[in-house]
Amino acid sequence: MKFKLFEKERDLKLLKRIGITIVMIACLIVITNEALWWLEDEEYYSDEYSYEEGSYENCNVAIIDLKGFLDTDFYEEGDVGSSDIVWAIEDAEISDDIKAIILDVDSGGGYLIAGEEISNALSRAKKPTVALIRSIGTSAAYLSAIGSDVVFASKNSDVGSIGVTISYLDNVKQNQMEGLNYNQLSAGKYKDMMSSDKPLTYEEKLLIERDLKIMHENFIEMVAEKRNLDIGKVRSLADGSSMMGQMALDNGLIDYLGDFYDVRQYLADLIDEEVVVCW
Description:
Elements: H1 2-48, E1 61-67, E2 69-71, E3 79-81, H2 82-94, E4 100-107, H3 112-124, E5 129-138, H4 140-145, E6 150-153, E7 158-160, H5 172-177, H6 202-227, H7 231-237, E8 242-244, H8 245-250, E9 256-257, H9 260-271, E10 277-278
Parallel strand pairs: 1-4, 1-10, 2-3, 4-5, 5-6, 5-7, 6-9
Antiparallel strand pairs: 7-8
């Protein structure tokens, strides 16, 4: 009997050791996966701006991409962060090798504050700056572009769209059909304003439209200032619609019609040397 009891105790100890070993291996796998994810993440971000800070090799013009939905930071796939672009502009500014900066734009816009940050960073730059609008440069992306010294676009580029929107879809009727009730628990009359699960009240709509009008006017003023246009003219264009390249040129929203080759020629004449772009 004692022998059998001893065997049971031995088996229990063995099982305990096996259990501890399995837990340790599982923890090691989790830690390893996290480390690999971090390395992949670092590699992803480093691919976007692969040069070292303030240091470029065998090139004299920095090209910075503004492609995708414009936000203040990178939050999800398809976003482009103004913080990254501002950093890249400032980094090109401190490099002795870089003689000019190109902002390569292909974006329908995003958040107004993100566009303002990029636009102001370009305006602060002492080196020549050029924005090249490819397929589209509208809304906050257009605001970003006009911080540069000159703006190029194709005759077939979509330009402008001076306006703001925060339109959204609500689920109220769908929730009612599915038997779902919205329980409002908030302190502050407007705290859960624009919740997709409740109707927008008339007062809330007035409040939102008030802020939209303020942002719209700010946008108009920035365009007028940065493009050196009469504010009345900009206001007449600021209906939220975009226009093609030739019309944008005729209305003073861009400076030249052209492509990347034309931008290179422009900068070559300006810096008086062959342009070698840092991709």
